[in-house]
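Support request from a user on the community tier.

User writes: "When I paste my structure tokens into the form, the page sometimes reloads and wipes my input. The last time it worked, I copied everything first. Here is what I submitted, just in case something in the input itself triggers the reload:"
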């Protein structure tokens, strides 16, 4: 009856949503209540999952979050999305995503526009380029890390952009 709360170091589990036209009374009533009580709550992001028995050789790209529990060989491009490598996940890939969380094994260079997390049993072999990074005790990492800072304009750069070359100031 009671569910153990999921800690941050545990890999998220996949729970399927009902098919269109099907609904469970408990999930429908609780979801509707939560949505009506918090109108400014963000919409749920869609999540694609590759199970532990799935093996893919080739390019993966998409516009939704992805959790990989199987084996992937080839580039993964999820520019504005989150990639989660589950405990049983193994990637031999060049990865581009907004956010990458590694519970399993990732071999290849990784570029995340927001952040990278390597959890305690996770392993990354390759170069990482990101704005923020977290590597837990017990994680394995071999490679280089490059932290990209957000680009801020200085006052002199803003002035030079606003005034076209050859324009006269009044």
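"...and here is what came back when it finally went through:"
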């Amino acid at each position: 009856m009671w569910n153990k709360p999921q800690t941050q170091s545990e890999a998220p589990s996949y729970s399927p949503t009902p098919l269109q036209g099907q609904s469970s009374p408990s999930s429908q009533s609780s979801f509707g209540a939560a949505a009506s009580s918090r109108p400014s709550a963000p919409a749920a992001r869609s999540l694609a999952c590759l199970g532990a028995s799935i093996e893919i050789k080739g390019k993966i790209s998409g516009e939704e979050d992805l959790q990989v529990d199987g084996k992937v060989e080839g580039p993964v491009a999820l520019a504005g999305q989150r990639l989660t490598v589950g405990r049983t996940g193994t990637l031999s890939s060049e990865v581009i995503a907004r956010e990458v969380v590694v519970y399993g094994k990732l071999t290849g260079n990784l570029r995340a526009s927001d952040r990278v997390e390597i959890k305690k049993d996770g392993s990354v072999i390759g170069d990482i380029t990101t704005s923020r990074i977290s590597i837990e005790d017990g994680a394995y990492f071999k490679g280089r890390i490059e932290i990209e800072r957000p680009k801020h304009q200085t006052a002199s750069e803003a002035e030079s952009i606003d005034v076209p070359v050859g324009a006269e100031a009044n």
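Agent notes: The reload is a front-end session timeout and is unrelated to the input. The mean pLDDT is 78. Residues 46-147 form one domain. Escalated to web team.
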